[in-house]
Design a protein that fits this description.
Helix content is about 40%, strand content about 20%. By secondary structure, it is of the alpha/beta class. InterPro entries: Ac/propionate_kinase, Aliphatic_acid_kin_short-chain, Aliphatic_acid_kinase_CS, ATPase_NBD.
């Protein structure tokens, strides 16, 4: 019998899960199965696959399940595959750790209460991250649970990199740049030596491009600067989030369009980004296939803003040895990678078009003589969470 670690990533409309086996005496953590339940508040769809990627379960509903119902269904599904293993712990992705949490932590009701205070900083994510934690604390109080934070990887940045130009009476309340997608960046940094030792020891910009998008400057495996700041709405344009925005625009919306706080929140989180600019979709695949001029404009804006961020982050690093593409768009949208690499030619990137188009999984997409390397490296936040969960619990009495 092996110990099993369940990893849960609960979002606003979906719950993703993975199960890993921690075999006694072995360093590696082996995947057992993974799945997700999407559309939990609309028309739920459940799929699960084994470690080889084979579909082992699928179910659809016509009525919403809600997050509690989704958690119950996943728990029922896991009962059989976990019957021959010992569920040792549950690791959770928690978007915001604030000032108090710069490393994984074992969850207690008191810590959950602290994390609830951070909901205003991540209103789309934090409440849903915490929901299954609270359910498990109630129903299985002795089951170890660990929170792994998307902000933690960036907490080692300098005070200057984390600071806003605001009075201390505000910044001392925790108003600063936190950065997000840290679990993804930490994973990529941990495996980069396997692919490019020079980049791993040098200066790299990782582009986490998905429905949520950001970029991070990494030097010798450590976060130096990130495009996301106080909240996960900052930085690059995303699927439905606006990204970087002049604060004066918000004042204009309040004064001239009579928008209140909740209306502005909906606008910048749910109605902007690729969806808002294109008027077509938040999905890059749909936009790339669309002949609609606004769809093409949204793509051009997305690439342009990435190119600006590359220049800024290269400046923070004092040079650049590699750029890495990861997450859904970064791993699968060759046309976006091509446009970004073309825009980064001045930084020493020479794209290999054939390698870019053929890239499946981890692959170098720049030419052999490119001064700055370009890579695609798939992220694996779930594996990072499983490893952090195991390592923390092994240190606790």
């Amino acid at each position: 019998m092996s110990d099993a670690i369940l990893v849960v990533n609960a979002g606003s409309s979906s719950i993703k899960f993975s199960v890993f086996l921690d075999r006694d005496g072995e360093r590696a953590i082996d995947p057992l199965l993974s799945g997700q339940l999407e559309g939990v508040t609309t028309a739920p769809r459940f799929r699960a696959r084994d470690a080889a990627g084979t579909l082992v379960a699928e179910q659809h509903w016509t009525q919403p399940l809600g997050h509690n119902g989704a958690v119950e269904h996943i728990a029922d599904f896991l009962r059989e595959p976990l019957s021959v293993h010992r569920l040792a712990a549950v690791g959770h992705r928690v978007v915001h750790g604030g000032l108090a949490f710069a490393a994984p932590v074992r969850l207690t009701p008191a810590i959950v209460a602290q994390l609830e205070q951070l909901i205003p900083l991540a209103p789309l994510h934090q409440p849903h991250n915490l929901a299954p934690i609270k359910t498990l604390l109630t129903n299985h109080p002795h089951l170890p649970q660990v929170a792994c934070f998307d902000t933690a990887f960036h907490r080692g940045q300098t005070e200057i990199a984390q600071a806003f130009a605001l009075p201390p009476v505000i910044t001392e309340r925790g108003v600063r740049r936190y950065g997000f997608h840290g679990l993804s960046y930490e994973y990529v940094a941990s495996v980069l030596p396997d692919y490019d030792a020079r980049a791993a020891q040098g200066r790299t910009v990782v582009l986490h491009l998905g429905n949520g998008a950001s970029a991070c400057a990494i030097a010798d495996g450590k976060s130096v600067a990130s495009t996301m700041g106080f909240t996960a709405v900052d930085g690059l344009p995303m699927g439905t989030r606006c990204g970087n925005l002049d604060p004066g625009v918000l004042l204009y919306l309040m004064d001239e369009m009579q928008m209140d706080v909740r209306a502005i929140e909906t606008l910048i989180y749910k109605e902007s980004g690729l969806l808002g600019v294109s008027g077509v979709s938040s999905d890059m695949r749909t936009l790339l296939e669309s002949a609609e001029p606004r769809a093409q404009f949204a793509i051009e804006l997305f690439v342009y803003r990435i190119a600006l961020a590359l220049g800024s982050l290269a400046a923070a690093l004092g040079g650049l040895d590699a750029i890495i593409f990861t997450a859904g768009i970064g791993e699968h949208a060759a046309p976006i990678r091509e446009r970004v690499c073309r825009a980064a030619a001045w930084l020493g990137v020479t794209l290999d078009p054939a390698a870019n188009n053929a890239a499946r999984g981890a692959a170098r997409i720049s030419t052999a003589d490119s001064r700055t390397a370009a890579w695609v490296i798939p992220t694996n936040e779930e594996l990072m969470i499983a490893g952090q969960t195991r390592d923390l619990l092994s240190r606790l009495p």
